[in-house]
Design goal:
elongated, alpha+beta, 6-stranded antiparallel β-sheet
Length: 315
Amino acid sequence: MATHQYSDKPNPSFHLIFNPIAGPGEPGEKLPDIESGLEELKNVTVHHTQKDVGAHSLAQKALQAGADVLIAAGGDGTVSGVAAALVDTDVPLGIIPTGTANSFAAAVGITGSIANACEIIRTGCGKRVDTARSNGHLMLLATCIGFEANLLTDMNREEKSRLGRLAIVTNGLKQLKNVEQFDTTLEDPEADNPDGRWQEPATAVTIANTATMGMVLAQGPADIQPDDGHLSITVVTPDHRWDALTSAANLFLSGLQQRSVNDETVHSHKASQMTVTTDPPQRVYVDGEPAGETPVTVRCYPRSLTVIVPNTDDN
């Protein structure tokens, strides 16, 4: 039997939080494959999310029942709900990505089939990663303000589920005729010099805890890591719609090539906390979900969550 490297107990208690309607396919059809992949783990309890019972409340109940490991099987929303219950605890989070985008799973190296994700849970190791709070909302990925937030507002949930993040942004580039500028002020409260305050008209602001290739507008700074203790802030400041298009293309290429973007209309910065104020107020999306309007304050909490990741020499 394969052995895990994230629990000191000889027979830890696993609780699986399963979202039966995540991703494509018929509701619940992925559960047999998940149970087959986890059959070597002898102590697994399965909980199903429901319309009125979300992943977060199920995770809290599992912790109260003495769970040693929580496994989130679903998309980014399910993962975020379970993670919210585990921040600042020693209980590790296993992830079986069965949603559409699965961005956070990809960011921590969990990709491929259900069988592969189950193998990682059986044999992987615990890695401490950063989380963030955006106006009180748990943030694993990014806060979006401006163009992408407006795009997400204009798309219904069925479209977002069907297209995924990369297709959402790619489709959004076709709608640049709707792009609007707004006055933006960024403040780093921990900076001891004038560089901690930045003010300029912008069309998009993205504050990322971690990012994948599907998050085009978060690709300003190179090497965005989930455990570096910093937020990566990208601000797009084009004067014209053509500039907005070329800026987005440069951001995408910078992500592919793992380099910082070289574009005078794209500004990047790293900080552990950032406050964004806009005039007029702008919609805010946190990890793809609506979260009110600006102003917004985002703060990084370094290495506050343990995630079960592939076992490599680097972990």
